[in-house]
């Protein structure tokens, strides 16, 4: 079941088309990455889903039906531009925001105690927001985003401003929330986090959805016919065993082993490559070289921009 669906969303600000016929479908219980260059339209889409602004055209379905006003109580939203009242004390502010999510004061205190201890920030309860570092304030905002245990969590650049240690803490908490049944949609520029965390992705560029799918299928789709062959033996003999259907792209040698990247053209197969090499070398490892999400991101955006300029 898709917990969130946007259909043909269009949004224009003055003379700028922020979203152009954008559709996504987020399966329940998954982590869904929303990718794209700065200004692509990601934040606009997230704001529409959160009913902060409305689309000029298109519709949003949530929990199996058209989105309703009270759906905000089943959604947790962490915006890129964080917003906390600087003069309020941390604990008082957290209780206030938890009450806005529908929690009673006793339940809010119980859940906040759990999260503050888990993230080791209980010592900041009586301090003012303005005394917090940026990273500490973001931890507080993360807590009040998830405090009401929403079915759908939406994070806009959740790792922005965090040092690597705290970014890893938040990443692990997001994965844990998924294990407990939450669905997570987040935008990010951190391709490493996408590869570690996401089940599905959508890439938005120049207001349009130009790529969507399961992350493994996307990586396979853009995989090249390059294979990494690890072997013991004479590189020259291996090279000489290759026919015109294969190209030795690069190689490295370390501790008596050779790692060679070999490109297979469309008229041959990886099995035939192995059959050629086995008589002249001892095979240690063999795998297809799959591009990273960062490589795919750059390739798809550049190809789209080139076609867009030509048209």
Which bin fits the share of residues in helices? 25-40%
Which structural class should the secondary elements be placed in? alpha/beta
Poorly predicted ranges: none
Strand order of the largest sheet: 6-7-8-3-9-10
Gyration radius over CA: 24 Å
Principal-axis shape equals: elongated
Strand content: 25-35%
Q: Mind telling me which CATH architecture of the largest domain this is?
A: 3-Layer(aba) Sandwich
Number of helices: 10
CATH fold-level name of the largest domain:
Rossmann fold
Q: Which class of the largest domain in CATH terms?
A: Alpha Beta
Could you please describe the fold and organization of this structure?
This protein has 10 helices and 14 strands. With 311 residues, it is of the alpha/beta class. It has 2 domains: 219 residues, P-loop containing nucleotide triphosphate hydrolases (Rossmann fold, 3-Layer(aba) Sandwich); 65 residues, 2-Layer Sandwich (Alpha-Beta Plaits), CATH 3.30.70.1150. The strands form 3 sheets. Strands 6-7-8-3-9-10 form a 6-stranded mixed β-sheet, sandwiched between helices. Strands 2-1-4-5 form a 4-stranded antiparallel β-sheet, covered by helices on one side. It starts with a strand and ends with a helix.
């Amino acid at each position: 079941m898709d917990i969130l669906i946007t259909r043909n969303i269009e949004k224009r600000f003055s003379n700028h088309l922020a979203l152009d016929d954008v559709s996504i479908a987020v399966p329940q219980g998954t982590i869904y990455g929303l990718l794209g260059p700065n200004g692509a339209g990601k934040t606009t889409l997230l704001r529409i889903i959160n009913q902060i602004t409305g689309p000029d055209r298109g519709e949003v379905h949530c929990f199996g039906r058209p989105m309703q006003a009270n759906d905000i109580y089943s959604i947790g939203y962490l915006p890129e531009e964080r917003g906390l009242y600087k003069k309020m004390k941390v604990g008082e502010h957290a209780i206030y925001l938890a009450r806005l999510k529908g929690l009673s004061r006793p339940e809010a205190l119980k859940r906040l105690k759990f999260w503050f201890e888990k993230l080791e920030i209980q010592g900041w309860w009586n301090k003012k927001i303005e005394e917090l570092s940026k990273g500490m304030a973001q931890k507080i905002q993360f807590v009040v985003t998830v405090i009401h245990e929403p079915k759908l969590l939406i994070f806009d650049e959740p790792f922005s401003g965090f040092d690597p240690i705290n970014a890893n803490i938040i990443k692990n908490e997001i994965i844990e929330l998924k294990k407990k049944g939450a669905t997570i949609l987040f935008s990010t520029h951190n391709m490493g986090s996408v590869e570690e965390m996401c089940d599905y992705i959508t890439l938005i560029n120049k207001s349009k959805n130009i790529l969507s799918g399961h992350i493994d299928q996307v990586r396979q789709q853009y995989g090249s016919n390059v294979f990494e062959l690890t072997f013991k033996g004479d590189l020259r003999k291996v090279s000489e065993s290759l026919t015109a259907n294969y190209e030795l792209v690069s190689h490295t040698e370390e501790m008596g082993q050779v790692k060679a990247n070999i490109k297979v053209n469309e008229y041959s197969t990886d099995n035939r490559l192995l059959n050629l090499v086995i008589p002249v070398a001892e095979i240690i490892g063999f795998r297809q070289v799959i591009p990273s999400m960062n490589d795919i991101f750059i390739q798809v955006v550049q190809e789209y921009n080139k076609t867009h300029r030509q048209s």
